[in-house]
């Protein structure tokens, strides 16, 4: 039986990845940081019905001693480093924390693996945000990076440290440069989930309007369930390297709104307003990925279309609100 250690297991990708690995017979350990709200931790794992199947280890990414003990105790075959301060907008108000967790935290993981489980394979959650002010209309593994936020700068450091640990110490370390991916388990502060939650609230008569920022921004949106499969495939390759994971299709926030409202039988223009509070100090206008390498070497293809994902997200938010009633 293989053993995996997932940091960020309570987040969107961690939950989907845990389900995927359990389905393949893995023993799955997850890093859990202490919270005063212990009762709400693991809500995503509960939603997927796997909260009792994963084993939690107490650790925080910024505390190397805890990370080292976690790696030592679990002796994983595969380590997936998904933990991060992952929200771009917050990275301008908490730039140092973002650097500590998203940047240095990844190096803490690399060090812990190098010291305590050097044979383990390592996955780093890199991000299309590293392309930022894009240097090519469609981005692949050779496109130069131009980070546009403290989040992206921290991810870029973690990305290059992963490459360096691979090249310096022969570690089986790969980075997945994942473009945006969403699901019903996406954090509510991200634009897609904010929209589908807003649509559900409007549909149920709980509110009338939804305030957003830049409607012209374009993203290459895929589904998290498809993307965690790509992470695992990277870990099964003999030779580690970096892979872009993307759908190849770019869509504006405006068009996402239209699709989500239309799924509930609503007209987005009657409800969406623009509030400058949701604009950012610097914007990433457009991202569009070329996942040819993942297709060719991993045999990976996204299976869930944007339309199907939007429908799933709106339906899940309607269901949640009907159950909760607020
Ligand atoms: P989430 O924000 O949903 O999850 C982040 C996870 O990190 C949570 O489990 C959180 O724990 C954990 N975490 C945060 N700080 C710490 C810390 N100090 N110590 C230990 N754990 C911590 O992110 P996603 O699942 O969406 O993304 C997974 C990874 O992929 C992230 O690194 C993200 O930056 C990256 N990424 C995501 C993309 C996307 O579109 N989703 C695109 C490209 C990259 P807690 O529950 O306690 O807060
Ligand atoms: P990001 O790509 O990781 O920053 O993911 P987000 O979902 O947070 O943002 C995607 C894009 O949507 C960015 O270009 C935002 O500027 C844009 N956007 C427009 N309105 C909003 C909003 O109200 N909230 C968020 N989070 N993003 C918004």
TrEMBL record:
Superkingdom of this protein's organism: Bacteria
Enzyme class: lyase
Cofactor(s) needed by this chain: NADP(+)
Classification via Gene3D superfamilies: NAD(P)-binding Rossmann-like Domain, UDP-galactose 4-epimerase, domain 1
GO molecular function, one term: NADP+ binding
GO biological process: 'de novo' GDP-L-fucose biosynthetic process
EC number: 4.2.1.47
Keyword NADP: yes
Pfam families in the cross-refs: GDP_Man_Dehyd
NAD(P)-binding domain segment(s): 5-313
Reaction(s) this enzyme catalyzes, per UniProt: GDP-alpha-D-mannose = GDP-4-dehydro-alpha-D-rhamnose + H2O
Keyword Lyase: yes
UniProtKB keywords: Lyase, NADP, Nodulation
Family (UniProt): Belongs to the NAD(P)-dependent epimerase/dehydratase family. GDP-mannose 4,6-dehydratase subfamily.
NCBIfam families: gmd
Biological role stated in the UniProt entry: Catalyzes the conversion of GDP-D-mannose to GDP-4-dehydro-6-deoxy-D-mannose.
The protein's name: GDP-mannose 4,6-dehydratase
Organism name: Roseococcus suduntuyensis
């Amino acid at each position: 039986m293989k053993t995996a250690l997932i940091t960020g297991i309570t987040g969107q990708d961690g939950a989907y990845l845990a389900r995927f690995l359990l389905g393949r017979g893995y023993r799955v350990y997850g890093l859990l940081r202490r919270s005063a709200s212990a009762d709400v931790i693991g809500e995503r794992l509960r939603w997927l019905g796997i909260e009792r199947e994963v084993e939690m280890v107490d650790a925080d990414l910024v505390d190397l001693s805890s990370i080292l003990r976690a790696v030592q105790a679990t002796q994983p075959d595969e380590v997936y480093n998904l933990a991060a301060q992952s929200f771009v907008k917050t990275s301008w108000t908490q730039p140092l924390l973002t650097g500590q967790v998203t940047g240095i935290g990844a190096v803490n993981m690399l060090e812990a693996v190098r010291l305590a489980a050097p044979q383990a394979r390592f996955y780093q959650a890199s991000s299309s945000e590293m392309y930022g002010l894009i240097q090519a209309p469609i981005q692949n593994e050779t496109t130069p990076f131009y980070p546009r936020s403290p989040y992206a700068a921290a991810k870029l450091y973690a990305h290059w440290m992963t490459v360096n640990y691979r090249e310096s110490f022969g570690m089986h370390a790969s980075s997945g440069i994942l473009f945006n991916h969403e699901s019903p388990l996406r954090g509510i502060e991200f634009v897609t989930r904010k929209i589908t939650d807003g649509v559900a609230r409007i549909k149920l008569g709980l509110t009338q309007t939804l305030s957003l920022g830049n409607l012209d921004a374009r993203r290459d949106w895929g589904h998290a369930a498809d993307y965690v499969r790509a992470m695992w495939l990277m870990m099964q390759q003999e030779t580690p390297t970096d892979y872009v994971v993307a759908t190849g299709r770019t869509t504006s926030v405006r068009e996402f709104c239209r699709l989500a409202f239309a799924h509930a039988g609503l007209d987005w223009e009657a409800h969406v307003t623009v509030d400058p509070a949701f604009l950012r100090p610097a914007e990433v206008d457009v991202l569009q990925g070329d996942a040819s390498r993942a297709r060719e070497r991993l045999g990976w293809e996204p299976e869930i279309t944007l339309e199907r994902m939007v429908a799933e997200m709106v339906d899940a938010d309607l269901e949640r609100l009907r159950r909760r009633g607020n």
